[in-house]
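TODO from last week: model Integrin, alpha 5 (fibronectin receptor, alpha polypeptide).
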Amino acid sequence: MGLERFCAKTPGMVTLALHARSLLCIIGLLSSVSQPVCEAFNLDVENPAVYSGPHGSYFGYAVDFYLAESASVVIGAPKANTRQVDVTEGGSVFYCPWSLSQSDCHSIEFDAEGDRNALLNDTKHQVDFKSHQWFGATVRSHGDTILACAPLYSWRTEKDIPRSDATGTCYLSVHNFTKFVEYAPCRTEISDAVGQGYCQGGFSADFTTDGKVVLGGPGSYFWQGQVISAAKENIIKAYYPGYFMQSVDGQMQTKQVKAEHDDSYQGYSVAVGEFSGDQVEDFVAGVPKGLMLYGSVRKLNHHSHFGFHCDALRFRALGFKLGTDIGKMVDLLVGAPMFMMRGSGGRLEEMGRVYVYLQQGPLNLELSEPHLTGTQVFGRFGSTIAPLGDLNQDGFNDVAISAPFGGDDHQGLVYIFNGYSGGLREKPSQVIAGQWAAGTIPASFGFSLRGAQDLDMNGYPDLIVGAFGVDKAILYRYVILTFNTSASLTVSPGMINPEEKNCMIVNGNTNFQVEVLLDSRDHKKKGAVKRALFLDSQQPSLHKSVRVRHGERVCDHKKIYLRDEKDFKDKLSPIYVAFNYSLDPKAAADSHGLRPILNYQTTNVIEQKAQILLDCGEDNICVPDLKLAVVGDRKEVYLGDDNSLTLTFNARNEGEGGAYEAELYVVLPPEADYIGIARNNELTCSYDTENQTRYLSCELGNPMKSGTSLMEGLRFTVPRVKDTHKTIQFDLQIRSKNENNSHSEIVSYKLEVVVQAEVILQGVSRPDKVFFPPANWQVTKNYGTEQDIGPGVEHIYELVNNGPSRISHTLLTLHCPLNVQSNHLLYPVEFSTVGPINCTSDHKINSLSLKVSHTCTTAHLSGSNKAKSDSEDLPLILSQIAYKQYVLECLARYSVEKMPYAILPKHYPSGHKKVFVLTPVVWNKPDIENSVPLWIIILAVLVGLLLLALLIYILYKFGFFKRSVPYGTAMEKAQLKPQAASEA
């Protein structure tokens, strides 16, 4: 079917076609086809059967199938409490019958008796200890027999009453729980580390095909370890209640060897298989600390009472599990869960590994490569290996391998690997993740595994997984499905031009089941903008339910459009279109309650992409050439100042293409704060913090086109300057999202940290003029108060630091003349200070001990609060002097001795400029009239009066006091008038 083109002249549109051959065909097959075309097997992880045990009992530590009478599983809980008297956490094994309703599990009462006693010298002594014995740590079944062991069970012989040893013990339930017998082959007279006292028999265990019990005891003979085997019929025959030690016919066990094999832990794990070609099963035992801690596997032949062993298989790991049988011949799998390998950084990381040895002939095991290595650090990949049988019916057996601490939150993982002629496939066919996140105790999902048994009798094998950290065991069943399903996705056109906008958006809603996601890869973060939407629904996804019969082909076409470029920033990354299909969850289950699932080999997610057309030439690849230059309005910052700063940058793109999502990235030093934009208000900047780094990002264009040159300014303050560094640095860079040449070079702007203070010295005289001598002043030689000396004068000196840096020590020097031409001029009375000031003088102050009135004005301390300021008062008193006029001149100067910084100032503030304070002294003339005798004054007054009387008499005689005579006759008056008139 050809592709139909929608909006052919609208490159802003994308048409996608979904082609599905036999899409979801399992639905049609189940409803109308009786025989599927092709079969494959998967574990049904959606519908597991979950068994739960008592909280904190470690239910699920060991698991196995039990198919004697009815389908069921047996599950060990080594920390469970039982009804045994005076036994704490003795451990238990639970029987869990299979049914779709998941019936409750119940404990199997292997041993109802508590701790046992023995008579010694008519006194009862406790001879075994069942508390904390971890009964159920090992569980295996064979036919109608269940073997359960307590590797930490302890006992003491009669000759060693004061002590006890962890010999370990096991119990067998035979004939479908009708009889229980104890089997403790390490409980012998030879105790202590020398013998089997620390054996921990039952630490590992297995059954042969014909029913022989195989036990591993890694603690025997100074932890050389031991493997013990006996037929279960002989164990049952030899058992007698009340007997602590028993002799089992045909029992075989490894012997003590040279001391160089101490601390090897043989029997840490055991497995059964035929390796010698004599049709009789042999045993293999893990020796995790053998061969200088490399680890080894020993093959033990029953014909020589375990005398044969080989150390050819070596592993650089501590502790491992064994598994067998992946091909037609018996092969060997060895797990090394603590295998270390170097990571990308060169550091050793614990990843875990599984080695596969293929048996090419009798006693000819060949290592298969590549090895299976875990992908989760500390996941303990290879902790447990379980054969599963031939799941996919290809003639080769498959296995399950666990990583009980792998996965997210260390919830545990189980990997399914398919076998083939060369061993195991390198990649797992299925990975099952535990559904319980790790808590205080990790869930340990996969710590125990058992498979290759058909529990539900549907003809397909099942897998049971233990998760003792959450006290659960999970049963997974295998299902059959059709896997010849294919789908295709086409996106056309592959290049979208955002400049052409010719399509019309139509509102509409559609209910879909098949899922198609637009812009699916790089835009999954919360809050991210989806750049493309479906035209009819205006949503970034669609779902649609499709029913397809076998051989049928279904095609669908949907139009999508690009949002307006103002709605998103990312124009470089492709728009990924993801097509995902899955089976309908409402499909009917079969008679066994199983639902179909897609084969693990089926690709059910398809992804295509479309590019946004850029202004970058034919290849649509932009290669910018970003340049940055920075200048500042200052080169220094001062300690103690706010230090305003403006950085002006010139950003240029000299490349052949635009720089998309270009921004100026400024890393701020800890001492600086961003204030705002200095030049252009159209520049947009945002301030943020990432990993304790404060930075400023300013948008320069999307794209910042080729040839663009921007000149902008940014304002900062640098108020938190410290003397721990001599420079402060701003790092600036232009960044873009382009794949090629995306960043400019980093430009650093450095400021020098400087110590600087500005000091001002001022002085004033109070009063500004002194008159001498004062009124009513008497010269005396008995001075009692300061007023007896003469008039007072006060000089006030003020030292002000205008900063910005602080001063810690300043010296102020004052010089005043005390004598003039051998005559006393000044008498110093006292210093009056404000602040932490200490004053000294080379002349004794108040040498006559006069009474001081403290009436002098005190100078006020002033100056910057960022620095200490000093001031001095110098009250002075003029002594008796005969000079008529004199100007008192005092000289002051300062010097800064110390500043409280590790950085030395370039220039210390200095008092080279002298400050003179002047006080004019004005001489008052003496009032000599006051010394004339009184009689002379009276006589002078009388003489004055007499002279005044004489002057009045003389004036009287001359007519001075007479009035003028009136005019004469009228004729005379007439004669006078013209003259008067003329005069007028």
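Done. Residues 626-754 form a domain with the Immunoglobulin-like fold (CATH 2.60.40.1510).
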